[in-house]
Structures are given as C-alpha cells and as structure tokens.
Task: structure prediction
Amino acid sequence: MKKLIFTLSIALGTALSAFAQPELVTGPAITLDKDTHDYGDVAFDGNGACQFKVTNTGTEPLIISGCQGSCGCTVPKCDPNPVAPGASSFIDVKYDTKRPGPFQKSVTINSNAVNTPVKVVTIKGTVGPDPGAVPSGAPEKAPIGAPVKQ
Result:
C-alpha cells in the first residue's frame, strides 16, 4: 500500500510540474501581459499613457517591426531593438485625453512572431468633460469690445 501511495504521489507531482512549464515555441513568439488596458475615468487633459509588456516566449529573437494606432489620437511607441528569447520589452501608448467622452481604440503590433505576427491590443476608458467648455444651451459670451446685440 505504501508503494502504491508513493508511486501515485510521484506520478501526480510529475504531471503537475509538466503543466507548470510554459510551452516553448520554436522561432520568435510574442506574448503580452494584457490584451486590453482600461483607463477607467480619466480627467480631461489627464495622463493618457499606458504600457503593454511584450515577452518573447520563443527560441529566436523577436523583432517588432511596427506599431500603429487606430487613429491619430492613439500614438504607440515600440522598441526597435530585437527582444531576446525569454526577455521582455514595452510598448508605450499615449491617448489624447483632450477628447471628452468614452473611447475604445486599438493598436496593431506587427512582428516576426511565428505564433501571432499581427497582434491587436485595445485601450478604453472615458475622458471627463472639458472644464473650459461652454455648457450646452448656455448663451455664448461675446468677445470683449464687440457690440452687444439688443
């Protein structure tokens, strides 16, 4: 009975350690820490910066050849240097928070990865109102020195 329990515990330990090992991909492979960055509520003209951590889970250097935002309000910056196997790099993304209201934008990452050569990540959130904006329905102020209509 002791031999059976011992054998089962060794088999179980071996099986669990096999599941704990990440799968190594032959060639460059891209893995990101997240697919979406949620800013939540952001103040108008607040901090619109975030990062995505890129890790090369392959056996060859990963080269990120380009990052493209879905519009001019989303500006990504990728490290042009190759990412060695097992190493990480960051993609910095800046969203223009001078655009009030909810947003959801994407960043397309192009690389030589064998698992996902084109990877799309998302940023989302809600930018608060412009504190300098004239409220809807309020009368507009005439420029100083302008004649007043009666």
Q: What stands out?
A: Residues 108 and 120 are 4 Å apart (CA to CA). The chain has one domain: 20-127. The longest strand covers residues 101-111.
